[in-house]
Structures are given as structure tokens and as C-alpha cells.
Amino acid sequence: KFLLNNNVNFSKITEFDNSKSNFLITFDDGYKNLKNNVIDFLNEKKIHCILFICPEFVKSNSEDYLNKGDLIEITKSKYIEIGSHSYSHTKLTELNDKDLNFQLEYSKKWLEDTISKSITSIAYPYGIFNDRVTKYVKKSNYDYGFTTRFNFYGNLSENFKIPRIDIWDNDNIKTFEQKVHGKWNWMKFFSKY
After folding, report:
1. Residue 186, exposed/middle/buried by CB under 10 A (0-12, 13-18, 19+)?
2. Do residues 148 and 191 make contact, with C-beta atoms less than 8 angstroms apart?
3. Which residues contact 179 (CB under 8 A, 6 or more apart)?
4. DSSP 8-class letter at 31
5. Global pTM?
6. CB-hemisphere CA count at 13 Å for 157?
7. Radius of gyration of the chain from Cα atoms?
8. Alpha carbon distance 57, 64 (integer Å)
9. Local structure of 57: helix, strand or coil
């Protein structure tokens, strides 16, 4: 509501225009409360977002995560895009080539088969990545890789190291406003990745 009241431009990642102040909302993991508390609001207000999903969480049928039916229903919206968060939310930098390939390619395939839409983006679990991981991400035909580094997305040549601004459950509206205006971007200097 704060962003809407400040007339920001919500956009898909493919429509970002660096001459404007664009916002793309992202959510990691695919928690069930997204369906119960967030999705209807985003659709009503025409706010684009990406949900980064781990197939293993979906397949677990845990009450904490979206299930397969939820995922299919949610993706009927033109405002909700699905991205990969790897197959099982593991640190990609610690995997051998075969396991890394599986985490990237099988999560993409499973999600595409499930929702019948292309998966073009991935959010690195824990925000951890390196050059080897981004090389495999490109090889697996993703177009975008999202990190957990604080910063603004301004360099289109860095499509596999896209920064995000983390919003935490203990943030208040003042902290939120500071973060979206870049006043927390100094935290990027503390990121190892």
C-alpha cells in the first residue's frame, strides 16, 4: 500500500526501463500464506511479482507450502510469474557438476511441466552463487538470476546477479521506506556473494 500510495511503477522484469523507477515484488520458497494473504491483493492492484518455488517443497504436501493445485491456480493470473529457487533449496556453490545441473535443470523442467509456462528466472538459495553457478544457470536456459544483495537493478548486463532489497518480518514502515529509497544499500558491502 505504501508503494501504491507513492505511485511507483510495477513492472515485469522483461519490461524494466532504467529511466523509470520500477519495482518488481519477489517472494522466495512458496509459502502457503501467499495464497491466503497476498495473491488476491496483488491481482486486484495489478502488481507483478515472481514467486520463486522449490519443487521439493511443493511435492512435500506440507501445510506450510503451496501445493501443486495452488501453483496451477495461482499462475492463471497474468501478474504472477513463477521462477525456480532450485529443486530442493540447497547451496548451489557446494554441489558437484552433476548435482548442480540437476538442481537447475530439473527444477525448471518440473515447474514448466506443472504450470505449462516457461521458467526464465531463478533466485539463488540463500543468495549464494559464484561464476560457476551463473555459468550453469545460463547453460540451463535461464534469462535472469536473482541474489540477496542489497542494491538497485540498474545494469542490464548483470542479468545473472540481480540484486534485491530484503524486507524482513521485523521491518516497520519507516525501515521499509528507507530500504526502498536505497538507504540500506550499504549492506551490499557485507555480502560475500
Report:
1. exposed
2. yes
3. 150, 165, 166, 167, 171
4. B
5. 0.93
6. 0
7. 16
8. 9
9. helix
Site of grid cell 521491518: 171
Annotate 95-127 with b (16+ C-beta within 10 A) or e (fewer): beeeebeebbbbbbebbeebbeeebbbbbbbbb
Strand partners, 145: 122
Cell of 18: 532504467
Using one digit for the tens of pLDDT, what is the confidence trace for 94-125?
999 999 999 999 999 999 999 999 999 999 99
Whether 84 and 111 have beta carbons less than 8 Å apart is answered as: yes
How confident is the model at residue 17, as a pLDDT? 64
Cell (9 digits) for 109: 523442467
Amino acid identity of residue 93, one-letter, is: T
C-alpha to C-alpha distance for 109 and 149, rounded to whole angstroms = 27
